[in-house]
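Supplementary Methods. Inverse-folding protocol.

Structures were first reduced to a discrete structure-token string of length 572. This string, shown here, constituted the complete conditioning input.
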């Protein structure tokens, strides 16, 4: 089987898939939205962002009733800045919510000569167009008006906290107290070098009544702005990646894209033991992680779906807490805000590594990522690591590809004789097919002999595509003229190189005699087609296939030359 011909179908499918993604982003109809009363997410009465208390552990949360005031709204809030060696956060004293985070080790764009130190990635952000915040609080079963939820006003002794040099842990306390003597202390704990933030909500009941209620944690996010135009959508890896909520059931990883939040059948409403809830973004994510073994109730919903920027929510409500007068009790959880680094997340919580979702190609992508990491450890450059991966795969499949090239060379030798058979049998396709198969059998040529190597390269292509698309390590990784191997080649040099490689392959495999004229024309435009297709792919993937094609072309020339010598040496 001709390798170039086989890739024709693959190329068409790949281009069609990318065009479909771009069309869906810009023009696909949105699911119908339910009409609801317009209300600000920060308003206190009947605010759907506040869960109702759960009388019994595991029961689904209900919305706050219209007559119930969630928190006083007279006093104004302030903001606290917290800086560690890897994070810079802003916490709003209104509820103690995390409303902004900078990931200090990760620049938002690739460094350039004009901008050698770009600003860090701002994962959490409370601006209207990029709203993404982490909230938490407590709700009472009594339906009291004054509650320590994420709308209540907390107090902080300081406006800024910083993890000092030589300090391994930093605690940031926030306090709230009502007139009845109920006091809640919310403590955020930060550790050096860690993106995991500990959260303790301690309840000190100084009132005369038993306090009963639930702790909850939630993430709210708007759908990120779309790039303008389908071309920018194709060039932007983030627009191609999954955007939405994800959760772990204790056994299974589930996802819900933003566009499906309004679908009732897709909504989350279940209790899980040992699970967690997250919002995913390309390369980074935020997740609320309850204590191991705790059963929480998880739900998803959309707040203000008719607004310009509806906010999508995933919530986890913990088991019922009961605190007698004069007693204290605490609710614990962890908040992860950071990078999606493969091989490190499962140590934080079971299943957290699944947020790097390679889909059906995980079995190929994970070991390929590991091999790439080993080559990077040796070469200290991801581009060189990709080249070494090419050489490794070529070495492992050398004999298989040699069979393919040998089959192609011998088929080319038979092209004149096949043309004679076509002239002899004309339009009698059955006799033509029988005569052709007899010729193959006589000359001991298997027309399917080259299929296996091509079938192997297909999953490798997709596996590497996902590795380069979703692996944080390759983000902003430079190589020669390429500033970012996870983005498209800015100068289109690699797509052009691959097109030249394909032209060389076609020169070694001229169009077979008897090939359908339409197919023959498509074969001729394939180099241009692949150049256009690879122009939108990550540069690392183009590098892999350009080097793979160069090595393959050299091997094919050597095999073809060897076959020509064998044919010449045969006795007449």
């Amino acid at each position: 089987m001709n390798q170039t011909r086989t890739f024709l179908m693959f190329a068409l499918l790949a281009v069609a898939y990318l065009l479909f993604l771009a069309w869906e982003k810009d023009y696909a109809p949105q699911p119908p939205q339910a009409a609801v009363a317009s209300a600000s997410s920060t308003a206190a009465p009947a605010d759907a962002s506040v869960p109702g208390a759960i009388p019994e552990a595991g029961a689904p949360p209900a919305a706050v009733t219209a007559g119930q005031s969630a928190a006083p709204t007279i006093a104004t809030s302030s903001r606290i800045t917290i800086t560690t060696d890897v994070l810079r956060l802003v916490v709003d004293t209104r509820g103690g919510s995390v409303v902004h985070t900078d990931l200090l080790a990760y620049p938002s764009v690739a460094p350039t000569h004009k901008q050698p130190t770009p600003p860090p990635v701002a994962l959490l952000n409370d601006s209207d167009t990029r709203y993404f915040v982490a909230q938490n609080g407590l709700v009472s079963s009594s339906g009291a008006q004054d509650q320590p939820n994420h709308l209540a006003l907390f107090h902080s002794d300081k406006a800024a906290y910083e993890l000092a040099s030589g300090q391994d842990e930093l605690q940031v306390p926030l306090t709230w107290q009502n007139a009845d003597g109920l006091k809640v202390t919310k403590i955020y704990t930060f550790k050096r070098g860690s993106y995991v933030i500990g959260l303790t909500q301690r309840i000190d009941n100084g009132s005369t009544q038993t306090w009963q209620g639930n702790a909850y944690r939630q993430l709210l996010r708007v759908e990120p702005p779309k790039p303008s135009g389908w071309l920018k959508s194709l060039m932007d890896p983030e627009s191609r990646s999954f955007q939405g909520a994800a959760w772990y059931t204790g056994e299974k990883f589930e996802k819900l894209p933003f566009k499906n939040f309004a679908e009732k059948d897709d909504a989350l409403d279940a209790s899980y033991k040992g699970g967690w809830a997250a919002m995913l973004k390309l390369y980074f994510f935020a997740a609320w992680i309850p204590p191991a073994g705790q059963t929480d109730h998880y739900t998803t919903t959309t707040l203000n779906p008719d607004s310009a920027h509806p906010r999508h929510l995933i919530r986890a409500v913990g088991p019922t807490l009961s605190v007698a007068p004069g007693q204290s009790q605490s609710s614990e959880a962890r908040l992860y805000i950071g990078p999606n680094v493969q091989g490190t997340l499962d140590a934080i919580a079971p299943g957290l590594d699944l947020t790097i979702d390679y889909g059906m190609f995980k079995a190929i992508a994970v070991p390929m990522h590991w091999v790439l990491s080993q080559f990077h450890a040796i070469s200290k450059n991801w581009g060189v690591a990709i080249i070494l991966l090419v050489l490794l795969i070529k070495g492992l499949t050398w004999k298989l590809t040699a069979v393919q090239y040998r089959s192609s060379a011998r088929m080319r030798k038979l092209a004149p004789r096949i043309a004679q058979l076509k002239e002899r049998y004309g339009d009698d396709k059955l006799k033509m097919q029988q005569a052709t198969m007899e010729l193959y059998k006589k000359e001991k040529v298997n027309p399917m002999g080259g299929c296996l190597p091509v079938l192997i390269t297909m999953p490798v292509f997709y596996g590497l595509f996902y590795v380069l698309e979703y692996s944080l390590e390759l983000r902003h990784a430079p190589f020669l003229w390429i500033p970012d191997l996870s983005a498209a080649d800015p100068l289109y040099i690699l797509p052009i190189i691959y097109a030249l490689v394909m032209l060389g392959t076609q020169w070694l495999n001229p169009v077979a005699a008897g090939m359908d004229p339409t197919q023959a024309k498509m074969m001729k435009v394939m180099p241009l087609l692949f150049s256009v297709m690879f122009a939108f792919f990550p540069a690392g993937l183009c590098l892999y296939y350009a080097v793979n094609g160069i090595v393959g072309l050299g091997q094919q020339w050597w095999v073809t030359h060897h076959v020509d010598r064998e044919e010449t040496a045969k006795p007449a």
